[in-house]
Amino acid sequence: MSEPRNMDQTADTLAGRAAANREPLPKKERMRIDRGHMPEQDAMARARNFAEVNLGYTEQLAIIEADRCLQCPKPYCVDGCPVTVNIPNFIRLLGEGNIKGAADSLLGDNALPCVTGRVCPQETQCEQVCLRAKTGTPVAIGNLERYVADWAINHTEVFADTKAAPTGKKVAIVGSGPAGLSAAGALAKRGHKVTIFEAFHAAGGVLIYGIPEFRLPKDIVQKEVDRLVADGVQIEHNSIIGKTYTLPELREKFDAVFVAVGAGLPVFMNVPGENLKGVYSANEYLTRVNLMGAYNPDSDTPVLHGQRVAVVGGGNVAMDSVRTARRLGAAESVCVYRRSRAELPARAEEVHHAEQEGVRFDFLVAPTEVLGDEKGWVTGLKCVRMELGEPDASGRRRPVEIPGSEFVFPCDMVVVAIGTKSNPLLTSTSPDLRVNKWGYIEIDDNLQTSMPGVFAGGDIVRGAATVILAMGDGKKAAANIDAYLQGTLG
Amino acid sequence: MHPIVERTQLSPNVTRLVVEAPRIAEIRRPGQFVIVRRGPGGERIPLTIADVDKAAGTISLVIQAIGKSTHELTSLTVGEAIQDIAGPLGNPTHLLEKGNAVCVGGGVGTAVAYPIAQALAANGVHVTSVIGGRSKEWVIYEEELRKVGDVVVCTDDGSYGRPGFVTEALKELCEAGGIDEVFAIGPVPMMRACSELTRPYAIKTTVSLNSIMIDGTGMCGGCRVSIDGKTEYACVDGPEFDGHQVDFRQMADRLNTYRDFEQVALERWATAHPQAHS
User: What is the DSSP letter of B134?
Assistant: First the structure.
């Protein structure tokens, strides 16, 4: 971990004071501290490598940042957190120099803090409602979470074995993404025997196939998974529910089931030329690069290295794709989005990082055709310019085509990142499982499906959402499954 | 882990591995496939399940050594193991209940045609298999297919059976009439030729498409094929499709997406393993 840059003088002094004397700072002094910047890898260097962009706080930076927290009696930040982490508590313990205590507190609330500390949109959750945001910048809650979580994952030896007495109950979890892993952790802590069924050869779901190494290193995910396995969670790889086993079969063999298979199928644009060589779904492109390690030239799995790449879409998956293409050598990597900058669904940090890395954005542009040569390779993306019209059902202004504005963006690769839809493999082999018209599983307030004892959460219920919302579902489902197993579910 | 319990060299570049996979052996149906990953760093590749032994809990994988990954798999010996096998994937073959079927197998595709022929025969369908290879040593699964019906062997050089391509033998069968369905499985040009041949006779023709895949569950969309102008996924909508509706040109195009990478990988592998036959 490199030293932070631009550390100001005030902070230095405070750190010295903090290290010598951990008495709580008066509020006035806390207010004087500016938010600590997350140290980052240089933009030009990182645009060509897959190492993590954010380098993490140093101990000194973390303790200073912890001192910025006002310890509100009514902490809005906790309400802003989908997994209700007791934020002021772990920050207070960290500020007191009790990092082990901070880690115990954090891990009690959140099964995957190394992950959420990196990929959560804190700016629209805990940090948005932080009292300090009203008069300046919020406490860097995400950065502090990451600091404490990384410390914990590298000091597993200091944590006591907290396994509860076995209940004798067996729970099956379908999918090892954020929802499944969170539920697994919480259920194992309550003494239930948990088996996760994962379709791929490795656990982690979107955390390993989707989110790139430069945002979430895979060894971190592996360590989080290892911690769950150490807690007694079993993982059955290469098990596709709907094929290898059906959901009704699992229901017979287990006392309860949690379905967290994710959203699944890629959505394509449905324009001519989409099956040309060089057109990828974001799912395929990112899976090749991340899960299969194709960014490493020694990997057995190949991936095309586009020189001029168009990524269609404006969400976090589009940002991951466009930044990945840049790292794989694209001279030009362009995000093509049919609305304007204001409507970009991606996190502000990802957009900012992408721009720093030389990614170009082309707003108010919609593709109409992928062009190719006689050998079936992509040569360009035909587009039209759009303007914003009346608001649509989502409340955002609908993009409307400008007549006669057609143009061609010459490129050798196109990545389609416009969303996903539900995968019917599991649901089509579960006749008693009720789904809505889009194929997503219907649940009640307890996250229970139409099959008693079968619960569901994450993207297969919500449609495409975020890691942390999926984790919130996993945590809630675990509590409800625990109640169900004890016969106390309301 | 899936230990290899038997290894047989079927032709100069086709190997049969019998591997332990009890759950898949128990539930697989003809036409289905698995995704195999040899071990750490390995590629995920789709392979049809050629046969199963439920009692022994094993499945047979017939692999043509073309690139690095398939060379590595076919270099495995009894006692070694394949780390990951996921499945069974894809839809089972839609099997005729009666009548006459012709199963055409080209090269390693003959091993894919075999479980279909076997299941059709078990249904009481009369099966004629037309199988081919460059020469005698390239013909596989003849003995097995003879147990489930008639077999016509064709070799390009005439060294065994009748000289010429499988399409010539198929044409004669079409002329003779009475065929309810043709299954054509092999290299893309062969499947295309068979489908074109049966079209004027209006004989239902089913082909099995071996597209490039990663997950095999519909997640990546890499295996997409054009069927009657509509995009479908070979992994979840197939792998079997109506040969008269497949855009074979696009299929062949997409299959060579990574040809340059594959060449480099194979050369590097061959240099590191000079003793391995290729």
Answer: S
Return the closest-CA partner of residue B169 out of B105, B227, B119, B260: B105
Does A451 have pLDDT greater than 50? yes
Of B129, B165, B133, the residue nearest B150 (C-alpha): B129
Q: Looking up tokens 């809630």, which residue turns up? A: A476
Q: What angle do CA A262, A263, A266 make, to 5 degrees?
A: 135
Dihedral-angle region of residue B87 (phi above 0 means left; psi in -120 to 50 means alpha; beta otherwise) = left
The answer for residues whose C-beta is within 8 angstroms of residue B188's C-beta and 6 or more apart is: B248, B251, B252, B255
Spatial separation of the C-alpha atoms in residues A184 and A278, rounded to whole Å: 38
* Phi/psi at A150 (5° precision): -65, -35
Beta-carbon separation of B44 and A375 below 8 A: no
Asked whether the CA dihedral A258, A260, A261, A263 is positive or negative, the reply is positive
Predicted confidence band at A298 (pLDDT cuts at 50, 70, 90)? confident
pLDDT band at A78 (very low <50, low <70, confident <90, very high): very high
Q: What is the pLDDT of residue A464?
A: 81
Q: Which residues contact A418 (CB under 8 A, 6 or more apart)?
A: A267, A268, A269, A312, A313
Q: What is the mean pLDDT of chain B?
A: 94
Token pair for B142 = 């003849």
Q: Helix crossing, B248-255 with B188-198: angle to 10°?
A: 180
pLDDT of residue A325: 97
Q: Do A293 and B257 touch (CB under 8 A)?
A: no
| pTM, to two decimals | 0.93
B249 CB-near residues (< 8 Å, 6+ apart): none
Give the integer Cα–Cα distance in Å for A327 and A46. 8
Residue A467 and residue B17: Cα distance in Å, rounded? 41
Least CB–CB distance from A244: residue in B87, B222, B226: B87
Is-cis flag, bond preceding A367, omega within 30?
A: no
Whether A297 and chain B come into contact, CB under 8 Å, resolves to no
| Choice among A486-490, B31-35, B201-205 with the minimum mean pLDDT | A486-490
User: How far separated are the first and last CA of chain A, in Å rounded?
Assistant: 48
pLDDT for residue A54 is more than 80: yes
Instruction: Name the β-bridge partners of B4.
Output: B19
Residue B276's pLDDT is 62
Distance of CA A64 to the CA centre of its chain: 27
CA dist A329 and A332 (Å) reads 9
CA–CA dist A64, B208 (Å, integer) = 63
d(C-alpha A323, C-alpha A344), whole Å: 16
How close A196 gets to chain B, by Cα (Å)?
Answer: 15
Q: Does A428 touch chain B (CB under 8 A)?
A: no
> Which has more confidence, A296 or A279?
A279
Chain B residues whose CB is inside 8 A of the A239 CB are 86
B88 with A287: Cβ contact below 8 A = no
Q: What is the pLDDT of residues A401-432, one digit of tens each?
A: 999 999 999 999 999 999 999 999 999 999 99
A215 CB-near residues (< 8 Å, 6+ apart): A52, A53, A118, A119, A320, A350
Q: What is the pLDDT of residues B104-140, one digit of tens each?
A: 999 899 999 999 999 999 999 999 999 998 999 999 9
Confidence of residue A437 (pLDDT cuts 50, 70, 90): very high
